[in-house]
Every structure is written in structure tokens, then in C-alpha cells.
Specification:
By secondary structure, the chain is of the alpha+beta class. The chain contains one helix and four strands; from the N terminus they run αββββ. It has one helix at 10-19, and strands at residues 21-22, 47-51, 59-64, 70-74. It has a four-stranded mixed β-sheet with strand order 1-4-3-2.
């Protein structure tokens, strides 16, 4: 079967966060932009979608409204 983000371990999600990428929220069978994407730097959920597509098609570009830093969100695929 095709790979999905559902297969990501908790360790892999934490490594993404430590690298500055917000890990996927939810499951791939419910593909949508989640209501609460958390900032990987300050953990705030007060974030805004800047662009549906980030540096790659599997990422979206967000900005944290608390620390004002931009970050990538890894979409559920």
C-alpha cells in the first residue's frame, strides 16, 4: 500500500517538530486543513495559514501569531 502520514511514529513527529516543521494533525482519511496547527517553536495554536502549499506540495505555510515566526506544516497524506 501507499505510504501515509498515519504510519509516522511519535518519535518521527517529535523530530519534525524539533526541526521546525509542525507534524501532521489528524488522519489521512480525513484530509483537510486542521483547525489547530501548533507552532513548532512556541507550541501556540494561534496560527494563520499563509499558503496552502509550502516548500513542497505536502507542506502548507503557516505563521504563528504569538511568536510571529513562519513555519511549514506537514499535511496529512
Amino acid at each position: 500500500p501507499a505510504w501515509t502520514t498515519d504510519w509516522m511514529t511519535a518519535d518521527a513527529r517529535e523530530r519534525l517538530r524539533a526541526y521546525g516543521i509542525s507534524p501532521p494533525v489528524g488522519h489521512s482519511c480525513h484530509i483537510h486543513v486542521p483547525a489547530e496547527v501548533s507552532c513548532p517553536r512556541c507550541a501556540s495554536t494561534d496560527t494563520s495559514l499563509i499558503s496552502e502549499f509550502g516548500s513542497t506540495a505536502c507542506k502548507a505555510l503557516y505563521r504563528c501569531n504569538t511568536c510571529r515566526e513562519p513555519f511549514d506544516y506537514f499535511k496529512c497524506i
